[in-house]
Amino acid sequence: MTLLSTRGLSKSFSGLRAVHEVDFDLPEGEVRALIGPNGAGKTTFVGMLCGRIEPSAGSVSFDGHDVTALPAHRRIRAGMAYTFQITSIFGRLTCHENVALAVRRRNGPLSDVTHALDRVGLADRAEQLAGDLSYGHQRLLEIAMGLAQKPRLLILDEPTQGLSDTEIDAFCALIRELKAETTILLIEHNMAVVMQTADRITVLNFGEILAEGDPDQIRADRTVQAAYLGTEDA
Ligand SMILES: Nc1ncnc2c1ncn2[C@@H]1O[C@H](COP(=O)(O)OP(=O)(O)OP(=O)(O)O)[C@@H](O)[C@H]1O
What we know:
This protein is α/β, with parallel strands linked by helices. It has helices spanning 42-50, 72-78, 95-105, 111-119, 135-148, 165-178, 191-197, 215-220, 222-227, and strands spanning 2-13, 16-27, 31-35, 57-62, 65-66, 80-83, 153-157, 183-187, 200-205, 208-213. Adenosine-5'-triphosphate (ATP) binds next to strand 2 and helix 1.
């Protein structure tokens, strides 16, 4: 089943075509990576999926419903969760309290807080103030907050930025585990992470889909190499 799809999704900023007529389909249960050079339109595209950016044209469907006109909070309630490059945690609250906010939003049991912290390896820091965590741990806390919503779709924007090599390994293992529970859309610059975790990869370039395929196909694709891999940290 297709969980998320877009048709003709477009966004222009005063004439600049940041995203142009993108048709995108994400089947349920897949880990999909969205990659592309800086400025390719990834953040704008995901902003439109989540309801943070209003499209200039086109539509977004989630779970069989057209959600194009729904505000972000309604999409969250429908089962979308996302973490962004800019951290959204509350620094003066503990890790436990931060995740509890996400659990309370869907009236879930408090045991889900511990479970979510455990999943990302932060259980022993539950009582630590979120603001005192390292940047990498704050990113993991955000993922825990996303997971606590028990989402059908988890969108992760640059989740490994600021993580150490060991933390990146743990993150890749976590993604593989989460596959059984939720569909994942991963915006990621670290190609090793993409190649290890993604079932399929969508490559954006100048706001359009340049290629789509499994990691081997994308690795072998010459247009992708020219547009992206040659200029990035592949
Ligand atoms: N609010 C805005 N106003 C004007 N132009 C914008 C705005 N947001 C994005 N853009 C432009 O739209 C294009 C796509 O930007 P976007 O941030 O979506 O790319 P990206 O692929 O996420 O890049 P990065 O990998 O650097 O995060 C860029 O040319 C960018 O300068």
